[in-house]
Amino acid sequence: xxxxxxxxxxxxxxxxxxxxxxxxxxxxxxxxxxxxxxxxxxxxxxxxxxxxxxxxxxxxxxxxxxxxxxxxxxxxxxxxxxxxxxxxxxxxxxxxxxxxxxxxxxxxxxxxxxxxx
Length: 117
Known about the structure:
Elements: E1 3-7, E2 10-13, E3 18-25, E4 34-39, E5 46-51, E6 57-59, E7 67-72, E8 77-82, E9 91-98, E10 105-107, E11 111-116
Parallel strand pairs: 2-11
Antiparallel strand pairs: 1-3, 3-8, 4-5, 4-9, 5-6, 7-8, 9-10, 9-11
């Protein structure tokens, strides 16, 4: 049974930093690409960062240069380091992965990030 558990969200002032973690179980983690999405109130969920099994990363333009995605295969964990946070980064952040065989997607429960101005 695949489980993704996010942690690390919270309230931070504009310009501050947070690091989100997503611990995965039930998969051979090193073989899976991982992604971070976010959903702000009244908006669609959007992909903001991804990392392949080969450690190739991609970022949405809105976070490029401020956020860094990384993974630790020994800990089955993917991270999102968020620096220079802005009020518009306020959202629920979700961890995601997809089986390349079944195409089934898996989501964590989400963690709230609130950036005050």
